[in-house]
Amino acid sequence: MKKRMISIVTVLLLTLSLFIGAVGCGENNDDGKEHIYFGCYEGGWGREWLDKSIAKFEQMYPQYKVDVHYEKSYDSTSLLEKIDMIDQDIFYGGLDLYTYLYQDKLMDVTDVLTTPLNEYLADSKIPVTETKTIASKMWGDMKDYATSYDGKYYNVPFGGGFYSLNYDVDLFNSKQLFLDKDGNWCNLSGNLSIGQDGVEGTYDDGLPVTYSEFLKLLERMKKRNVIPFTWSSVNGYTQHFLHACAVAQDGVDAFNTFKNMDGEYTFEGDSAPTKITPANAYLLRNSIGKKDALQFAYDICKKGYYDSQAGGGSMDYLTAQDTYLMSIENSKTQNGVYPIAFFVDGGHWHNEAKVSLEMMAEMSDDYKNRKFGIMPFPWFDNALASKSTFFMSSPNSSLHIKKSAKQKEGAKKLLAYLNTDEALAVCTSTCGNIRFMDYEMTDEQIKSMPYYYQTAWQASKMGDVCYNLCDNPYIFKNYAYFDEMGWEWSCTTSDGKTLNNPLNHFKDKEMSSLTVKDYLTALLNTGKEEWKKIYSGNN
Description:
Layout: H1 2-23, E1 34-41, H2 48-60, E2 64-71, H3 76-82, E3 90-94, H4 97-102, H5 110-114, H6 117-120, H7 134-137, H8 140-146, E4 156-157, E5 159-160, E6 162-163, E7 165-168, H9 169-174, E8 178-179, E9 185-186, H10 211-223, E10 227-231, H11 235-260, E11 263-265, E12 274-276, H12 288-302, H13 317-325, H14 327-333, E13 340-344, H15 349-352, H16 354-363, E14 372-375, E15 389-392, E16 397-401, H17 408-417, H18 421-431, E17 434-435, H19 443-448, H20 451-462, E18 464-466, H21 473-476, H22 479-483, H23 485-489, E19 491-492, E20 498-499, H24 502-507, H25 516-536
Parallel strand pairs: 1-2, 1-3, 10-13, 15-18
Antiparallel strand pairs: 3-16, 4-16, 5-17, 6-15, 7-13, 7-14, 8-9, 11-12, 19-20
């Protein structure tokens, strides 16, 4: 009995300590300021973007002090369980908006989003001249998503990076892996070909436009002792990467046909388009883009275009980043090690690798100002896209205020400032995050960014950007299914094999007989059964 009492006391103490850690400083402040408590998910985008903006906000409103509690558990599920018990009033993190609204946990911030910013922040000690409203700057689907509950605004969707081909610009330069206008290989000083955007002098010059050009590039890499790909053991990155490849082939029109579940799609081999409705939207699990993306994964794996450690159990995301970053250096000193051209990850990876990049710069002058960039997915011959098309990471990341907030006005002022053009530009320039809004950056700001951020910024301006967020109830109420791996690649074959990650399955020796057709068939059949539940649950 005594032992059991000790255990209970221990559990209670641990629970109390965790609760105190979550609530932060409480109300015991003696600095004469009104404290705004901010809960921030410290993921791939880090904290510099927020720290810099808070420093400016406190100059604008010296009566406020913003206390930020950074942690890794401000995800949608864990926050929902404790949101009314903790001190934090305003949050940045993942948000399952439907669940939060259903449980009435979010503050109505319609006035913040619909009042011109210069008016809403008129009492700032530093004048705000921006006359736009936050709502007027939000990308169209984002505005619909934020108001889909009852016509009011409850959050500000944040932004993210692109799932695309992350490539080593310096390696391409040294190994002459760029294309010139005559179709010859060259370095950056050559007469570079015009990329997918069709505009000379932009981020994709010298890069392959078609898949056939891309395959020639991969073969050249092998001849030049370059390993094309590596990736970590984090399934989500490779799954979203290949989904992004599919989106890049189908293009924004087909993507929006699915999001709206209203339109037409001509499937490969059909002579006439199929009318897409909520009842049959699962058919797009067999889109042309899906087939092309599976072929992309199949070719990478079956032709050996990957590092032997790719996807291995020891390759967590940080190890994978360092393996990629150090591949050039390690190839100089270690037999059998070769530089790696492409890294499969989300657009946040470069900011996440900042410490490693800084250490490399200190190690050698050769690694100062290392250049990495975003390459659009090359188009297959049957691609429907007319522009470079990018699928965005972290679409459900959000800025929001809880309904039970104690410092309501201060939190709303901070929310407003974090969505001024000034703060948006600070966010992009410090961590590369592309906010879901229309805003501009000065040439000076753009040139000050790492080259990777510059290419992401140009890609967002030159191409089409796709993301799952919308007010379609089939997606809105089942967001986890579409944002995570359910919709993208999860399925079961006719002989009972569970599939969810094409890159890993196609390189798995135990699945050597798996074909692109097998995977497509499983996607369609499984999707049909899963869709019955989603469709019936919304009718």
